[in-house]
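Service request form, structural biology core

Requester: graduate student, group of Dr. S.
Request type: structure prediction, single chain
Budget code: on file
Notes: please return the result as structure tokens.

Sequence provided:
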Amino acid sequence: MLTLGNLRKAVGSTHKKKRIGRGKGSGHGNKSTRGGKGQTARTGKPHPYAGFEGGQMRLVRTLPKRGFHSPHRVVYSLVNLAALEVFEAGAVVTGQVLAEKGLVKNLHFPIKILARGEISKALTVHAHRFSESARTKIEKAGGKAEVI
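Core staff response, request fulfilled:
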């Protein structure tokens, strides 16, 4: 009969702890299962950083550099005219309203309206920038394109 007093672990479910660095008789003495000597045998990460090549000039530094990234580049949240069809005629479209509808993910970036698609309603659109063709399409539909 099985009771709490005579519970036993299954045979083979437990193993003896590997005691490294306890002499040659243990089978894990000398280098203590760490391979050779030197940097990789020490504690902590074996290399100081990703791409480290043992003091040799790194491959990343030997390759030529190309291109230029402007520190003054402005990244816009882009909205196409076709997306503005969800609004009713005569509505005022601002950044806050665009964010509520899910057309703009982040109000941290300025908003630019692009001309892809058509617009059939008169809307007043407030944005930081408009493409020229988007501005003309909005005004043809009877709306206003106002720069913030």
